[in-house]
Description:
This protein is an all-alpha fold. The protein has helices at about 5-25, 30-35, 45-70, 80-85, 95.
Amino acid sequence: MSDPAVLLAIARRELGRLLPVLDALLADLDDGKLRSRPVPTEWAPVEIVCHLRDEETEDFGARLRVVVEGGTQFTPIDPERWAVERGYREAVPREAL
């Protein structure tokens, strides 16, 4: 399966399934739980949602193009820096979705 159109269609279909799953997982969490980190070195649920949003909008397409075009190197990203600079923990969870 190396047809770029097929790969893109599959990727879009799979990504389309993510929002309802995330919405269901987060539905019963209050604001405190959404912002609370299980341990200091792990992200809070709202940070994870923001990371997924930014990955999808800024990084996923670029990585998909590299794969489809037969490339071997991805442009590096720094998710930890993004979390701090973009204020993931202070984000409004429903807006991030």
